[in-house]
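Something for you to look into today, if you have time. Could you write out one complete protein record for me, on any chain you like? The space below this message is yours for that.
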Amino acid sequence: MKKLGKQTLQLDNKPSILNTAAIVGPKELNGPLAKYFDKCVEDEFWGEASWEKAESKFIKETVSTVLGKANVSSSDIDYVFAGDLLNQCISSSFGMRDTNIPFFGLFGACSTFVEGLCLGSVFIDSGACKNVLCATSSHFCSAEKQFRFPLELGNQRTPTSQWTVTGSGAVVLGKSDTGPYITHITPGKIVDLGIKDANNMGAAMAPAALSTLCAHLEDTGRSPDYYDAIITGDLGYLGKDILIDIAKTKGYDIASIYNDCGVLIFDKKKQDTHSGGSGCACIATVFSGYLYKMMKENNIKKLLLIATGALTNATTSQQGESIPGIAHAVAIEM
C-alpha cells in the first residue's frame, strides 16, 4: 500500500470484487435498470409491519444473495462494513444481527457504500483479512418519515428534490485472479459552501465531489480520460450539471464520460422523481446491479466511482445549519 499525494492510497495487493447483489423496490422496478437487479420487490413493506423493518429486510436478503453468488458462507467473511440513513444505522445493525460476523457500522450518508469499499479494501490489501462484505440500504418511505414530511401529508415536492432509492446493494471483496479490482482509494474531505436547502442536496454535495475528483486526479497523475466512466453517487440531474460546470473551472472536461447514479436509476420522463435518485442504496444498487455487470462484460474497463453524501439530519436543518458534503472515491479496473 502506498500513499499518493495528500489523500489517495494505491493498493498493491489489489482486492477483487468477488460478486455483487442488489435488491430494489417498486419504483426502481419501473425504472430503466430493472433487469440488472437480482430482485425487484413490488410491496414497499415487503410483508413487514413497518418501513424500517422492510429496510432491514432489504439489506438482510441482499447480503444473503451476495454470499450465495460469491459462493462463500457467512463464516468465510471476516468483517462487515455496512450503514444506512436511519438514526443509529438501525437498518444495517438489525439486518445483520443474526449473521454472527464482526460488524463495523458506518455513516457517511449517501457516500457510505464507497466508504465501506475504501475501508474493506485497506483491510484486505494489508493482509489483515481474506474476505469482507460491504453493504448499504435506504428506503424512500423511512427516509421521508425521518428527514422530511410524513407521507400522509402529501406535501408537494420541489423540482430540486430527489427520490430516495428503496433497496440495498452489497459486494464481497476478496482475493482472486479475476477482476474487477479496486486499485486506488481517495477518501474525501468535508466541504461546506453554505447551502441550506434540504431539498437541494445535489447543489450541496457537488463541491465535495469536485474536491475528491481533483484530489484523485492530482494524486495519481491521471487525466479524466484515463477512465472509461466516471460515476458519482447521487447528485441527481441538478448536481450532475453543477459538477460538469465547476469541473471545467479546474481544467477538467468530464461531460463525455461522466454520469450519476441518481440519473441512471429512474426515467425522468416517465417517473415523477424530479431531480433523480438519492439515498445510500442509490450508488450501491446501480453499481452492484448495473455497473458491475458492465465491467464483467468489458463494456467498462476502468471506472472511477465517487459516492457523495450530505452530512446533515432533520435537527440541523430545522436549526438553520448549512449542509456539509462528503465524497469518497474508488478506482475499479479490470
